[in-house]
Write a structure and sequence with these properties.
alpha+beta; Arc Repressor Mutant, subunit A; Multidrug-efflux Transporter 1 Regulator Bmrr, Chain A; 8-stranded antiparallel beta sheet; 11 helices; HTH_AraC-typ_CS; AraC family transcriptional regulator
């Protein structure tokens, strides 16, 4: 069997395991079952998974569950105890300890004081100082993408599929940049119908064979908000960008998709150090003034 055939087989196994993890995060996930799903011995599978994703299976599951828990803390009124139990922590003390180690604050304080609070109306003056918005002319970009339908909090599944596919096909390049493209407003569209794409920058010379699809981002002026902190916090940043910054900017929106550019990797830095650029397309300044 050739090297390409071996990695093609691994690709299918990676996709099965990634799908299983994301679909069973709220259940009692048995990590010992994952090698069975991959059709490899535990001895080999854990090494293959870590070689591709640069983290262990257990670290992936813990990171994804804490990400979803952070989303619940920001977006819901569930009690901390209920959120802990939902994401696999029947012991509130252990959830508090693990969450605080990852996010820098215990869950209750994160809900009250997390970075999402800085964008709320009563903190408008503070947020204008704390959060940079620059206007930047961005060139058009060619992307390779995996489509995702459902909660934007779940787009990690598409990124796992994208990374595994690129790696197994020997297409991944260190200069590829991670991009998230989000087509729908989560305040207007039902969660299960939200459309998005997990992407990397890639030239036309890189083949886009299923499940990969080709997308492009139009170049032009963009308002770029640099956000530091957990991905779960960014919904509030979007509302601040539209509701506070845009009316005061004198600029008009251009009818192209917004996107997020991820400047570092959630596998490599803690959530409070994640850097994301939220990019809002703008009409050229001359047209906005006309």
């Amino acid at each position: 069997m050739s090297e390409s055939e071996i990695w093609a087989a691994y690709e299918k196994r990676l996709l099965r395991v990634s799908a299983y993890i994301h679909e069973h995060l709220e259940e009692d996930l048995d990590l010992d079952r994952l090698p069975e799903i991959a059709c490899l011995s535990a001895h080999h599978w854990h090494r293959v998974y870590r070689a591709v994703h640069n983290e262990t299976l257990a670290a992936t599951v813990r990171r994804l569950r804490l990400h979803r828990a952070a989303g619940d803390l920001v977006r819901s009124d569930r009690t901390v105890r209920d959120i802990a139990a939902r994401w696999g922590y029947p012991n509130l003390q252990s959830f508090t300890r693990v969450f605080a180690a990852a996010y820098g604050l215990p869950p209750a304080r994160y809900r009250r004081e997390g970075s999402h609070r800085a964008y709320e109306p009563e903190n408008a003056k503070e947020s204008s100082r704390m959060f940079d918005v620059t206007i930047r002319t961005i060139p058009g970009q060619s992307l390779l993408a995996i489509a995702h339908t459902g909660s934007y909090m779940g787009i990690g599944k598409a990124f796992e599929t994208l990374h595994g596919t690129l790696f197994s096909r020997n297409l991944f390049r260190p200069d590829m940049r991670m991009i998230g493209v989000f087509l729908d407003d989560p305040d207007l569209v039902a969660e299960e119908e939200l459309r998005s794409f997990a992407c990397v920058t890639a030239g036309e010379d890189v083949p886009a064979e299923a499940p990969l699809v080709r997308r492009t981002l139009a170049g032009g002026d963009h308002a770029v908000l640099r956000h530091q902190g957990p991905y779960a916090d960014m919904g509030v940043a979007y509302r601040w960008l539209y509701g506070t910054w845009l009316p005061a900017s004198g600029r008009s929106i251009r009818d192209e998709v917004m996107f997020e550019a991820y400047l570092n990797n959630p596998r490599e830095v803690p959530p409070n150090e994640l850097l994301t650029e939220i990019c809002l397309p703008l009409q050229p300044a001359a047209e906005a003034a006309a």
